[in-house]
Amino acid sequence: MRHTISLLVEDEYGMLPRIAGLFSARGYSIDTLCVGPTLEEGISRMTLTTHGNDKIIEQIIKQLRKLVKVIKVTDLTERAHVEREMVMLTVNAEMGAHRQEVFNLVEIFRAKIVDVSPDSFIVEMTGNAEKVQAFIELLKPIGIREMVRTGTVAMTRVAATRQQPKGNEETFSQLTLNEKV
Amino acid sequence: MRGARILVEALRCEGVEHIFGYPGGAVLHVYDEINRHEDRIKHYLVRHEQGALFAAAGYAQATGKTGVALVTSGPGGTNAVTGIANAFMDSIPVVVFTGQVPTHLIGNDAFQEADLTGITRSCTKHNYLVKHVEELAPTIKEAFYVASSGRPGPVLIDMPKDMTAQEAEFRYPETINMRSYKPTLQGHPGQVRRAVELMLRARRPVLYVGGGAIAAGAHEEVRRLAEKLNLPTTCTLMGLGTFPASHPLSLGMLGMHGGYWTNMAVDNSDLLISIGARFDDRVTGKLDQFARGAQIIHVDIDPSCISKNVKADVPVVGDARVVVQQMLAEVERQLDAGERIADRTAWFEQIQEWKRQHPFFCHDEGEVIKPQRVIEELHRLTGGRAIVSADVGQHQMWTAQLYGFENPRQWLNSGGLGAMGYGFPAAMGAAVARPGEQVVAVVGDGGFQMSFNELATIVEYDIPVKILIINNGYLGMVRQWQEQFYARNYSHSNIQVAPDFVKLAEAYGVRALRATQASEVSRVLAEGLEARGPVLMEMQVNREENVFPIVPAGAALKEMILG
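YS: structure for the whole thing
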């Protein structure tokens, strides 16, 4: 089963190879991986998607938690969350029916045309992995010349009834510690 | 002060008294300080960096203190890697300092450059590259904390040469607080209660104790738990000595070369209580056949060990000593509340019966020296009190089966990695750590030829290691597998072409003795063990002796070949 795992890590030398190396050394696979800063200086967020049976996923999470500079590991799969991925595609768009068909799909998928040439568009689209995949499949018959995908980023949903935490949500120093084990 | 001096001062703050190392270009600033401060930190110059790591490991395993090694960049670091991997597999607290080329040359394929943090990332608990001299002291503080806390392990600090030359003020942090690293010590009370309920009710329990119990200093508590609840107790290869071998409840070692009665007890148990052990494949044999009728209680400080190989019914994350203390208190509470310990008479009778059927055995053959008898004689002559460091192979298994360890930190070996060449340098480290005690390196002729360069070290510092070579002219364990599983095709396991070990030792200035006949064993051992300083004793043993029982690789635990 596909899992989306969110990590908070110390923004230190060599963190990325530590995470990637853990997967390769133990024979697990990373499907996508995104890294970026958080609101708190010195802490990075990594979002990765992987797959495996329950036993493998349990080991992946435990092994990630074991890394000395990993602050927090959350398996978002188990909780309400929002996932997004961005894709950019160069698609055929010769004058005529194809050009119109691309316009239609862009409209339906709420995508954007970000660059235009006489016979192609660069199209940008954001959505969850399934939506991105559907968009790609529909554009394939028209002709995709090149594709770039970012991989998944994800966030826990805050329930409508839950009280909003005060102030900056990304001050982790207090809230993270008990959740590591 | 310069970084090199900061390193020395930090080691003092950590209470380090002994380090093992080998100089080279990238650590020359450090060595320029080392010999000026040897009144408080004694440096031992090994003859190969791998020896420094094994010595630091032996030092740590014999004491519980963190071992320290210092090597240079490039080949110094790569030579150390096997020793680092060994410390990682066996959870040994070691801090390794490696030199690195100066910061501005990193990535330039500079002379003696190797990406040591990259190379060791998967075989250290954590590693650091020092990028600013101001970070050196706090990094050392953190490294010692990480290496020695939680599940211990090796931590490496890579120091570019300019980091040891630049100046900074020395301030050593007094406390440490890492938001990303907080080992859980206390077991979950609900799980502890469930565990104790099962332990009271079990009809056929086995307590299964590993190296984690030694690391946690839990041996007293484990013994009290076994006695209080009447639990037959087995130790893993790494756990030997946690529970006294002579204790009436002791089952000895389990696993691939465990006792018949031990493995049968585990296989037929209805409750297996694991304390600081990790259900290694050499313990369990075929996983789906392992202790099928047993519920599993698994106490471990490393959550990733729990349910990794065998699904735990009652997982308890925590420090072995703390958790067993909690268990003892809970036992008292439940007994006070009227609970009773189940009757296990039939279980003990059954185990005794298994032991009567197939004890360890050894057929004497006239004047041929039987390696098992050498180990038994070593036990007798040392009163079972020596610190014994084994290399890897048949002799390691005979020693584990037959020496009879009574105390923790008395038995050193390379269990997880199985690194030949470990035994002798580890004994050297142990002898440095525990002066005045008898330290014996039991090694094979193969492993000794991977490490005898350290003879110069024990001579230079007069380290009184007694080296006992079980010489069969073979890579014995390889030969045994080839005999049993490869139709006696002894492909490249015959190492009869070897130096004369007595002359070799004498060339280094080490006293040496040899026994070629059974009747000489006692005299040679007695003479060698009584002599002061380092001694080498060579036993030319039966060449094709096998270790029994043996569970073939991939077979179920109960499918032992008994010989």
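YS: worth flagging: The longest strand of chain A covers residues 81-92.
IM: good catch. Also Chain A has a mean pLDDT of 89.
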